[in-house]
Design a protein that fits this description.
The chain is of the alpha/beta class. The protein has two domains: 135 residues, Alpha-Beta Complex (Aspartate Aminotransferase, domain 1); 220 residues, Aspartate Aminotransferase, domain 2 (3-Layer(aba) Sandwich), CATH 3.40.640. A seven-stranded mixed β-sheet has the order 2-8-7-6-5-3-4, sandwiched between helices. It has a four-stranded antiparallel β-sheet with strand order 9-10-13-12, covered by helices on one side. It has a two-stranded parallel ribbon with strand order 1-11. β9 and β10 form a beta hairpin. α2 packs antiparallel against α10, α3 runs parallel beside α10 and α4 packs parallel to α5. It is globular. It starts with 22 loop residues before the first helix and ends with a helix. The model has no long low-confidence stretch (mean pLDDT 95).
């Protein structure tokens, strides 16, 4: 007898998420000094964590024998104040991925629901659908951007969730505010719209998401400390929604889901607006530099509203491997059905220079 004879059958064909390759793995594979490797694969903050967050972690280290505050009260209160919402409009998660899992728990039924997302959007939505045994409906996109009309047309009577990634990962495109508002107003009231806003802080003229929530729309906006605050290793995310929706999601949350070190670091990071400003400045300068590099060398690119950019390099698999041999890790888009494209995270100027040199050698 095989263990699969009594295991959850949905797991057998589950597609495993492919994260960006770790520096240590590339160093072992190619015999490189890990200190010389540049990782531009996972949209991490090249400036690292907020210095205030680092100090907070040091101070918190001696308390790690004590269970964390299960409600993350101080952190939740600080985020709510920063965002201008009430405490009961917010839920914290082990990364924003956990908030996505909460909405599946809260609003889908195994074998009886469907969810809608756009082609070339975050892979985790489909993985979760497979895990929860709900039908995943992929709407066509348009020029690597969400086609909201196509998404609305894909909605069925059993649809319970719609995912709008804005700005979109992995393409970097975004939906205009007026267009998005028309879409939200037109969606049936028994469907929850998940606005995945992991890259919200990099937007010029960001959407008025909180105003839409205040008007009572069934929106769950997911955000993260992994990008702008540089705390990806601690896994801290949060969701914003009306109090009724948050009440459902809170019932899906495990006790102590956000560890004490993460709470301390995130609380300090909330107040460090200077670090966020410097991150944005570096990102915008890096995007402009990468756009110019692509133009000068005849590479197609997708204009980005996030901290990364997609480039067409012809054979992403070959380029991906050749760049690693030169100590540069990017993200191949083959798993997203884009075999000619790579995604490049914006790094520091020296990191971007190393990438440019390596790519020219490879091309």
């Amino acid at each position: 007898m095989s263990v699969w004879d009594f295991a959850n059958a949905n797991l057998r064909n589950l597609h495993v998420y492919e994260p960006g390759k770790p520096i240590e793995e590339v160093a072992r594979e190619f015999g490189l000094d890990p200190r010389t490797i540049v990782k531009l694969a996972s949209n991490e903050n090249p400036l690292g964590p907020s210095p205030a967050a680092v100090e907070a972690m040091k101070l918190a280290a001696h308390r790690m024998h004590i269970y964390p505050d299960g409600a993350s009260f101080e952190l939740a209160t600080a985020i709510a104040k920063q965002q201008g919402v009430a405490y009961n409009n917010l839920i914290l998660g082990n990364g924003s991925n956990e908030i996505i899992e909460f909405v599946y728990h809260g609003f889908t039924r195994r074998g009886k629901s469907s969810v809608v997302a756009s082609r070339h959007s975050f892979a985790v939505y489909k993985l979760m659908a497979e895990l929860f045994d709900v039908e995943f409906i992929e709407a066509p996109d348009q020029n690597f951007a969400h086609d909201l009309d196509a998404m609305r047309a894909a909605v069925r009577d059993d649809t319970r969730l719609i995912f709008v990634t804005n700005p979109n990962n992995p393409t970097g495109t975004r939906v205009g505010n007026e267009e998005l508002e028309r879409f939200i107003v037109g969606v049936p009231k028994n469907i929850v719209i998940v606005l995945d806003e992991a890259y919200y802080e990099f937007c010029h003229n960001p959407p008025p998401t909180l105003e839409w929530i205040r008007r009572g729309h069934n929106i769950v906006a997911t955000r993260t400390f992994s990008k702008i605050q540089g705390l990806a290793g601690l896994r801290i995310g949060y969701g914003l929604a009306n109090a009724d929706l948050i009440g459902v999601l809170q019932r899906c949350r495990q006790p102590f889901n956000l560890n004490g070190m993460a709470q301390a670091a995130a609380l300090a990071a909330v107040g460090d607006t200077g670090h966020a400003r410097r991150t944005r400045e570096l990102t915008f300068a890096g995007l402009a530099r990468l756009e110019q590099f692509a133009r000068e060398h005849g590479l197609a690119s997708v204009p980005s509203h996030a901290n990364f950019m997609m480039l067409n390099v012809g054979d992403a698999r070959r380029v991906f491997g050749a760049l690693q041999q030169r100590g540069v890790i990017v993200r191949s888009m083959r798993s997203y059905g884009l075999p000619e494209w790579i995604r490049v995270t914006i790094g520091t100027p020296p990191e971007m220079a190393k990438f440019e040199r390596a790519l020219l050698e490879v091309m």
